[in-house]
Structure prediction request, 441 residues.
Amino acid sequence: MMNAWPKSSSLLKSNEQWIPGGVVSLNRKSDPNICFVSGQGSRVRDLEGNEYIDYQAGFAASFLGHNDPDVNKAVRAALDNETLLMGAGPTNLEGEFARLFCESVPSAESIEITTTGSEATYHAIRIARAVTGKEHIIVMQGGYNGWHNDVACNVISSLADIGERVSPGEYPFDSLSAGIPEGHSSLVHVINYNDIDSVTYILQRYPVAGILLEPILQNIGVVKPQPGYLEALRRLADEHGFLLIFDEVKTGFRHALGGYQQLCGVTPDLSTFGKAVANGYPVGVIAGKKKYMDYFIHPDKNKKVLIAGTFNAHPLTTAAAIATVRKLAAPEFGVYDHVNALGQLLENGLQDIFRTTGRPFQIARQGSAFCVYFMDHMPVDYHDILKHHDFAFDKAYRLKLIEKGIFNFPLPIKQGSISYAHTTQDIEETLEKTQSILAAL
Prediction:
């Protein structure tokens, strides 16, 4: 394909003089690399002046849409009020946000606020180790839980690096980064999602402090829990004395005001949130049962878990979060009804279109999050996708959509996200363009 984005390519090349790789988060690097400069609602524009209907939304962060007017109004008010970052004492916003959050999420008896989701999962693992006195943790093959040593592994691994499916059993620690001590990675056990036998296998061999997982595996599309899976994890946590930690940084407020845990009816010990909580402003939340959260203020120095951060609950971010949660909770906006209806409209339309191609496909969707898999059954874990999904066709499909002004991240099996700002017309245009590119493909 000819370079249709010469200005973006030039910018990336220029950035490489000052930034390794030219991008400050290498998760953003893709082919093509497009520089987006502005956005409103469901639409974004790039450096070349092209407009797109956006389904990327900051890896699902802008749930209300880009530059939501109510969120922006709250941030501007914080600026006009000369709200400041002092670094001494409580702020007048963090308590209000904490109350709203705990009223929204049933399992949240108290919270702490961080700047990123990665920091939140970092703290959750620390609490689990402090509470249990154990050091080993379990994470999911194909899950993404942040950048730190415990979880920087096995995100989208090749079969050559992790080997064939094993159950019960575990997979090699496929590191995303140099600089992780080998002794540290030996404390991390990678298994497949939806595989209870492998959880039991690890529990029989190691002292496990916690299991950390997305309750829906959304780093690799939309892989849902099998019936009874999350309930079994809850039971094993109670029986074996480890903490069940839901990473709801992506699922969080996107699927329900109380998180996906509200929908599935399984209560974790700790949860982490981010992204949609402040409609894309940089915030992370760790929430959970008070008896565990109070390890941040434990009277015993040897059990106290550190939390610190100059920018935790930054006033502009916290103002955005308060406005976001209020809007999500307000019946007059009907956020969840709207996005769920659009999700159903998109799913139905894609089903109709792909049925005519004779190609195997599955439309996986949870509310406003969706993914098209090119395989003959709905995937249950990462190995299932590796073995059966047509990655080459997926890549070509995404590139053709981008050329037509429909932006999904140009990497196979990445989730698409509908926002509250999307309209029926956006969905209909997406379906029309999908139909036209499939003829070309």
